[in-house]
Write a structure and sequence with these properties.
Number of strands: 14
Number of domains: 2
Number of helices: 5
Distance between the termini: 51 Å
CATH superfamily of the largest domain: Vaccinia Virus protein VP39
Structural class: alpha/beta
CATH topology of the largest domain: Rossmann fold
CATH class of the largest domain: Alpha Beta
Helix content: 10-25%
Order of helices and strands: HHEHEHEEHEEEEEEEEEE
């Protein structure tokens, strides 16, 4: 239990995350609306929705122990399970979710929200967050940790951004093929990733190396054998993020490959 509480404490202390979600919920949720909170955790976003005027919130959470620790309210209906495996008795006006990893989509975010949008959301409803830009760049790091702070000085090319809009995206598998032009001689140890998140119109934040730090830091995709590159070389890169087959349903299989022209 202490580990569970410690994990949630880290999330709650992330003021950038908390402030942005609070502002977005206040802007989008109107009095009388019904809300679904996916990956509700301790129900913090559910209570924000109530504060904004929601008449009812369906708080969907996989972990039973987390639900037991959550603050209860008669207007919150807790639903234990994966959102893709449960049914709600009615459609909702707003879906709110914070199921983001350091690479944005690496907690099964995309298939989860696509399914929820199809089955739970009213026509004309809203999703918080609205969209995310995932940015990737080759990097020269000393650490191989998959989550770490990666200073801009360790990046070896301008980042490439890809936008994902949760109200319109239909493919649960994220794939891109791109290329980077190396900006200096160095040794590539892997690929750094971060995201710019827009929760609602005019409400956003970034987890980039230059932004104020968040608990997400930056994601890192290490390579088995670091290799040297020279300024001006083209590094081609492809990545796929797909749902895994684990029963928790909250992690993603990530595959990537690369080569230098």
């Amino acid at each position: 239990m202490s580990e569970l509480l410690s994990t949630h404490a880290i999330l709650l202390k992330d003021s950038i995350r908390m402030d942005a979600y609070r502002k977005a919920i206040q802007a989008v949720v109107k009095p009388g609306m019904v809300v679904a909170d996916i990956g509700a955790g301790l129900g913090v976003l559910s209570h924000m929705a109530l504060d904004a005027g929601a008449s009812k919130v369906y708080a969907i959470e996989f972990d039973e122990e987390t639900i037991q620790l959550a603050e209860k309210d008669d207007r919150i209906t807790w639903v234990q399970g994966l959102s893709g495996e449960i049914k709600l008795p009615e459609k909702v006006d707003v879906i709110v979710s914070e199921t983001l990893g350091s690479l944005a989509l690496d907690e099964n975010t995309l298939p989860t929200l696509i399914d929820a949008r199809k089955r739970f959301l009213k026509k004309g409803g809203a999703i918080i967050p609205d969209h995310v830009d995932l940015l990737l760049a080759p990097a020269a790091t000393k650490s191989r940790a998959k989550v770490q702070h990666i200073p801009e000085a360790q990046l070896l090319a301008a980042p490439i951004a890809t936008s994902i809009h949760f109200l319109t995206e239909t493919n649960p598998i994220f794939t891109i093929e791109t290329q980077f032009t190396i900006t200096r001689d160095a040794t590539v140890s892997g690929f750094a990733g971060w995201f710019d998140l827009t929760l609602a119109k005019g409400i956003s934040f970034s987890t980039s190396p230059n932004a104020a730090p968040t608990h997400w830091k930056q994601g890192f995709l290490p390579i088995r054998k670091p290799f040297k590159v020279k300024r001006g070389q083209v590094l081609r890169f492809a990545i796929e993020m797909a749902p895994d087959q684990l029963p928790t349903g909250v992690t993603t299989d990530i595959g990537y490959n690369y080569h230098v022209d």
